Amino acid sequence: MNTTPIRLGLIGVGGMGRWHRQFIQILEREGQVRLAAVADVSPSALAEAATQFNDRALAGYRDFRELLDHADVDAVAVVTPTPTHAAIAGEVLRRGRPLLLEKPPAPLVSQLRELMALDAGGRAAVFFQHICSPGLRHLRQALRDGRLGALREIRSVAGWPRGRAYYQRAPWAGKMTADGEPIFDGPCTNAMAHFIHNALHLAGAVSGGDDFAMPRTVSGELYRAGQMESFDTAALRATFDGGVTFSALYTHACRQAVPHVTEARGERGWLRLHEDGSVTASSAALALPVPAEEHVAFLNCYRDFLDFLRQRRPRPATRLADALPFVTTVNAALAAAGGIHSVPAAWVRPYQQDNDEGVDLDRIGAALTACLERGALPSEQGLAWARAGRTLTVGELPPLTVADLAAAAR
Ligand SMILES: NC(=O)c1ccc[n+]([C@@H]2O[C@H](COP(=O)([O-])OP(=O)(O)OC[C@H]3O[C@@H](n4cnc5c(N)ncnc54)[C@H](O)[C@@H]3O)[C@@H](O)[C@H]2O)c1
């Protein structure tokens, strides 16, 4: 099919922006898109992007507002640090430009609601690429087709070791606030945010449409085992109208990596989704034979957005409003946890590996297994370092504020 490439502006070309540049290059070869302008506060990141796209005079700006003022673009992708999302995405929307915003859309529900109010035309999408993976789509379809029976439970775990280098890679890493701005950076709001968003999409499968379910109640436990301002271990449970329960445990405070697994259990069967997006095992012979590669999900997420702009799809995979259940869930998890619990040193083993140093939380491997097998949170497993939180009704929660984030910081 003949298409005119969509002229794209990319704000944030270093870090994750490097990945976006790669995907944009692939989509350029398909004639889908053309990178027309970039913005980044870092001159070296701008120079790298100009070298990669040296077949054109790529317009580069240090200030993203100049890109919005001067560049001839049809849409803008924003891949800047999370604490800048509200301001940059807000400006893109005020200029009436379609927006593709990296996840998480914003740290606080109140900020996301402001972005939603600016997006009256519904032309903004959030880059939660995992829901575009073939495995997640397969699992969701199996649920919608009733092949597992009525959905009862979702469990999800991941242990991704992250040491000092990870927390020192960017000034906002491992922070709750900076200069009065919300950040709220931790496993459930950053690296493993996808798995929560996935679970909310699975829980929404039973209601039909492309819904993301809003939890009725949320329980939470947030732990700081290492030396960061925020947290490196997060456990949460969400319950939904209709009786579905989602339990999760995610950590960076582990020496051994535990690949992500999400399991959906229905009345008649279960199905497991693995780290790479493949469905590895199922009680109902529904496993996908070929593991899905991660770049497939990334490209699908872009294609969905571009197809939506071309009016070939009624909506992108995740609209701003679709991310409201995710941001609500993680905001509620902090409130339910009653802050971040610093784990006493007796239960934390520092380790060194590959010129980096991290921490290993006592019995964290077994804790992840118990969460996957029984849905048990750390406080329900009798772990000495664990501290039970409360269960809060989401509809009764006051909005989380930047002062709440600051109060939870070490
Ligand atoms: N979808 C995913 O799987 C995935 C993976 C990693 C990161 N992310 C998200 O991508 C975003 C960026 O993360 P990162 O680790 O690349 O961040 P980063 O700190 O490396 O910054 C990315 C780029 O943004 C630039 N930048 C910073 N402030 C800017 C500003 N005001 N205007 C223009 N450019 C600016 C930086 O110079 C850098 O080149 C975050 O929201 C993160 O959550 C998503």
In short:
The protein is of the alpha/beta class. It contains 12 helices and 19 strands.
Structure description:
The chain is of the alpha/beta class. The protein has two domains: 125 residues, 3-Layer(aba) Sandwich (Rossmann fold), CATH 3.40.50; 251 residues, 2-Layer Sandwich (Dihydrodipicolinate Reductase, domain 2), CATH 3.30.360.10. The protein is 31% helix and 24% strand. It has twelve helices and 19 strands. Strands 7, 10, 11, 12, 13, 14, 15, 16 and 19 form a nine-stranded mixed beta sheet that branches. The chain has a six-stranded parallel beta sheet with strand order 3-2-1-4-5-6, with helices on both faces. It has a two-stranded antiparallel sheet with strand order 8-9. Helix 4 packs parallel to helix 5 and helix 6 packs parallel to helix 8. The longest helix has 16 residues. The termini are far apart. The model has no long low-confidence stretch (mean pLDDT 94). It binds nicotinamide-adenine-dinucleotide (NAD). The site of nicotinamide-adenine-dinucleotide has 24 residues, from helix 1.
**Average pLDDT figure:** 94
Unreliable spans: none
Radius of gyration: 21 Å
In total, how many domains does the architecture comprise?
A: 2
Distinct small molecules? nicotinamide-adenine-dinucleotide
CATH architecture of the largest domain: 2-Layer Sandwich
Structural class: alpha/beta
Report the β-strand fraction as a percent range: 15-25%
Helix content: 25-40%
* Tally of contiguous helical segments: 12
